[in-house]
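FORM 7B: Structural annotation worksheet

SECTION A. Query
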Amino acid sequence: MTVRVLKYKPDYDVVPHAIFWRPLRYFTLIFRDGEDGLDMFKGASFTIGNDIRFDLRVYRGHLNPKFTVTLYLPLEVTDEKVIADIIERVMKEMVIPMTAAAWKRGQPFEFGRLERQKADRLVEEEARTIVLKIAASQSNRIASMKLLRDEVPKFVELSVSDLEPSPTRRHEQLWQQIVRNVAGSHPTIFKVGLARKVRRGIEITDEGIAYLSSIGFLEASASNLAEAK
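SECTION B. Predicted structure
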């Protein structure tokens, strides 16, 4: 099932139901500035099939607005099981790690306090998608190793575990080793045709662009970055 990101403002009121410990740029390049009468926000609207509509928003007053985003559902969605199913579906279709969920509807919530899951850290599976997103964000679709090292910390907040020294590579932290493995020697994204190795780094392919479109990072009809902006 494809996640479709919308360029226009939805015509429904929304209620918050989950918080993910990832920045808005992690989820999509198609977002807008908005205001709901209470505060300014940056956000994006999505659909999955014909029955699921949701927003991802970051308000200026949110806890850790640099690295968290809140999932909003239409006001009329009130059934707790339906809400839980939608959250699970969104996380599956957008390839959001389970550890990225800092809060879900039904869990205790203390106003002014939000804790990140201790197990939430960068792993190779997530790093593969982040590497593709960074390449797709470039006008030439190419990401050098230096660019990846500069940009990955903007897509996911590095945890204490991420910052630990690599046991096998001197002068590198664990997250840097993971990024190097994914972009340099890890075969997965190359074997399945999502990216190719080039002299300057890695280049995302048309297949990679289509994959990112299917999880809402780009427009579903995007065939290149220019069309996705």
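SECTION C. Observations
The longest strand covers residues 40-48. Residues 3-104 form one domain.

SECTION D. Sign-off
Analyst initials: ____
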